[in-house]
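CORE FACILITY INTAKE
Project code: CF-77B
Contact: R.S. (postdoc)
Sample description: multi-component assembly, two entities in total
Requested service: structural model of the whole complex
Turnaround: standard
Below are the sequence entries exactly as provided by the requester. Do not edit them.
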Amino acid sequence: MAQTPQSPQGQPAPPPPPPLRGDPVPGGGKPGLPVPFAPVLTAATGDPNSLDINNYMRRGGYSALRRAVEQMTPDDVIKDMSDSKLVGRGGAGFPTGLKWSSTKRNPGPRYLVVNADESEPGTFGNRYAIEGDPHALIEGMLLCCYAVEIKQAHIYIRGENRRGAEILERCIADAYKSGMLGKGILGKEGFDVDMYVTRGAGAYICGEETALMESLEGRRAQPRIRPPFPVEVGGGLFGRPTVVNNVETLMCAPHIINRGPGWFSSIGNPASPGPKVYTISGHVNKPGVYELPMGVTLGDLIYKYAGGVTRGKKVRAVSPGALACQFLTADHMEVTMDTATLTRPPFFTDFGPVGFGAGGIIVYSEECELIDLLVNSSGFFARESCGKCVPCREGTTWMHMMLRRMAMGGARPRDLDNLLDVAKNIGGRKTLCALGDFSVSTIGSAFRLFRPELEAAVSSRAGGATNGRATHTELPVAVVH
Amino acid sequence: MPLSQALKDRVVNDYFPRYPTKRAALMPALWMAQDELGWLSTETFEEIAELLEMDPTDVVSVASFYVQFNRKPVGRKLIEVCENPSCWVHGATETLERICHKLGLDPHAGHAGATTADGEYTVRPTECVAACDYAPAVQVNWRYYGPVKPDDAEAFLENMEKFALEKDGLVPAFGTHEPRFKDGSAWNVNPSDNGAPPPVPTPEPKQEEKK
């Protein structure tokens, strides 16, 4: 199998690359005309030479940085980022321009931290991005450092992605050699940036920005109390104002500077525009990475791009933003997959927003037993809860144990109500970070959407009649804190 | 076994200048120690604590938080099978069981893992390794392999390279800024470069449009 992401551009004539600033706009510049979408973030992925800095420069790399340094003030860069309406791609959906400008309002020294701890089950776009086009990330980071006047940037990459860490280390060394890092970058006096890679060591919670910074400081990765927020003095890395950005967010920055904020904001859903790297896995024929305009419909993603559901089955449930999100069903095929849609009514329920996360879509066909899926997902959160907040630490374990009991045929009459009661006491911002909310979103939405099915499954298994499906539920509770 | 002087020098010279506190070098120090010794013993924790001017218990409390730091010896091949939903729907649990069965290990040992008597293999489930498109994904010493379907478990143990997703022959050289190939040569993707530093790009013609 090829490592390249399955590009949606399988048609005979691929659309031309998006225009640079100053180029004539397709359609004669008349607003409202559709511009053919061409991938930019994953355009180089799969090319074995894409890690080479010379190759990146031949592709136009570091020209955005050059443009920024030579023609723009730092505030111009921030203004472009704000005008592009780029929102963070990590899941929270915070406007990037606002994050940069509010960090800059606070006194230096400031830090940039790149959140490359992509541990959400079902999300793997950042891994492809880092392995496919690492210099684009470095250029995006340099643009942020230029705009926010930052002298030190840290990439925190998950421990499992050892290859990604090695690639980044190598590319950073190359960038130092060619004068893109270090002192006086591109001849600009005072534009000094040092970049370091730090590896995590297998903790889901490190994807949470304050926990990530705790880990970078050499502590257990447990989230901090906010305020102070990371952008403020006292809240960031080593107590300094800090920009924490996702990999994909920063990789958008060179394209925004090169092609203009208008180009970016014209793509996809106007409320959260831009190209988006969707990752699809689970019961689909062509799982993989698909770069599409933000706001493609769920049905298109599954049937047009990912090749439909395996063995021609029907969709039972979909996690739109990996495991931390609520389920969607086969009735939601017309829903557009973007941050703005999935975090606002009607996709805002008792258990919070349905959520889009980082765009990792997991499809479950009707072959998937929901109760077993819930056992699996609740076990993940029970193991990955960091243990700082009591509702999450205790509740996730209890939910997992109750679900296991139900799946194994030992359900007690009040188990279902108990489960929802526990879930309500974890969810709804009762914990310091969002892991508590995440842990109940699958369970809460499963009982909202599929309660009759789940009740039937639980009662049919009562007394141990597990239809031969319970092998994995026989694993002991192995909660690792 | 004590830590090498080279490792200690690297922590002091390479990592201390990066951070305002010595403690912040803890994660890299633990990784380097584990890469050198294979696992982290009480003795190692004490050495690192002395180096970073921390309390040994403090070092252990951090190391025990992260599942990738081994606090007991593991096999030369650490096989981790992802069991999260994307891999689970493709039979990851059965893959894990069949790998364990083939090696004579307890598949229910949980996340602590089980090691063969000859110290060759340790097998354990793990959380998502971000290779969901190659489900069920497996990592061996944190290198990517997949997809390893349940029926492929035996073939996987016989010939892992067939399932490898990383094929460029890099040996781990994290933190050195100098990754090397197995033959000892430095990384050089483009052979025509001869290791010379890449040139600074020539400025592109200035665009007329000005903000």
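Facility notes:
- Residues 5-63 of chain B form a domain with the Arc Repressor Mutant, subunit A fold (CATH 1.10.10.1590).
- Chain B touches chain A through 75 residues (CB under 8 Å).
Invoice: internal transfer
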